[in-house]
Amino acid sequence: MSWTEIAPVASLPEGRGVRVEVGSHRIAVFRLADEVYALGDRCSHAEASLSEGPLFDGCVECPRHGAEFDLRTGQPASLPASKPVPVYPTRVDDGVLFLDLETTA
């Protein structure tokens, strides 16, 4: 795994998304309590930014057409999306978020 430093976890808003761009990667990062999740920021149905979507029960809702994606797996939880979005492994060291940009689920 190749870890890339992203940001201090304390700088991430609680309960909503932030878009992070690193090289060719556009990533939606979400902090929920002590957990941090990172998904590809483009909805697999309509290319909308998932970082702008609301969170419900461990899922993010696409702001364009309402498709929901599981924060842990990237799998669609509702239509109209039928394909998953990439999930990036996260690691927190000394309060700083790191992402593995080479390994996606």
What's the topology here?
Layout: E1 3-8, E2 17-22, E3 25-32, E4 35-40, E5 55-56, E6 59-61, E7 68-70, E8 90-93, E9 96-100
Antiparallel strand pairs: 1-9, 2-3, 3-4, 5-6, 6-7, 8-9
Structure notes:
The chain has no helices and 9 strands. The protein has 105 residues and is an all-beta fold. Strands 1-9-8 form a 3-stranded antiparallel sheet, with no helix packed on it. It has a 3-stranded antiparallel sheet with strand order 2-3-4, with no helix packed on it. Strands 5-6-7 form a 3-stranded antiparallel sheet, with no helix packed on it. The model has no long low-confidence stretch (mean pLDDT 94). It has strands at residues 3-8, 17-22, 25-32, 35-40, 55-56, 59-61, 68-70, 90-93, 96-100. It is globular. It has a single domain (3-100), classed as Rieske [2Fe-2S] iron-sulphur domain (Rieske Iron-sulfur Protein), CATH 2.102.10.10.
